[in-house]
Amino acid sequence: RYRTMKTLQEDGSSPSVPKTVTSPLVIVVGEWNKGQVEKVTLELLGDARKLTSSLGSNVQLVLAAPPEEEPAILQQLAPYVEEPVHLLQHPLLKHHEAEVLLPALGFLFHKCRPQLILMGATACGRALAPRLALRLCMGYAPNCLTMRFERDGKLSLTRVSHEGRLHLQSMWPVPGGVLITMKPGVADAPV
Q: Using CA of residue 154, residue 155, residue 158, residue 160, what is the dihedral sign?
């Protein structure tokens, strides 16, 4: 079984997964490696905050790790994260592999139904994201550089294609949900 916790909340609320959300939910799927939270996680949080600041949306962070990594992860995130953090914990999550993450994240996201899911376009993100989008019946936008909401409520994305030689602009209706992978190193991590 997976254990889900909102560890960084100070209000003492229940550690259960939210079933309904009144405003659109944006979830950042963070990554860690060898006991360190990857920089792309903080970059994605910064992008999510910018994107949702005008919408009044909720941003939440999800990290999957074995139970023994919890103290180190929380200590690293504490200076940067004010959003709810969900730690999916199980010994099999030690290696951060797509085959193990897919059922865990699929279960969580079926419960809370996010409008946007942001992941890093890392090796794990590229392996996991298209399969997770298919499982959740969401749109999938890989290798994005920028994202912003237009006045008509559609999400405007700039993506990289053809080994970086072509930039594509696309518009996405958000109500169906979109899973986006962002190129690491494009955004600034929050200080």
A: negative
Contact 86, 17 (CB under 8 A): yes
Specify whether the CB–CB gap between 64 and 28 falls below 8 A.
no
Q: How far, CA to CA in Å, does 127 sit from each of 29, 118, 119, 124, 182?
A: 14, 14, 11, 5, 14
pLDDT digits (tens, 9 = 90+) for 111-170: 888 889 999 999 999 999 999 999 999 999 999 998 888 878 788 888 887 777 788 888
Alpha-carbon Rg of the chain, whole angstroms? 16
Q: Which token pair is 66?
A: 């074995």
First to last CA, the chain: 35
Distance from C-alpha of 168 to C-alpha of 190, rounded to nearest angstrom: 27
CA 162/CA 1 separation, integer angstroms = 41
Predicted structure pTM score: 0.83
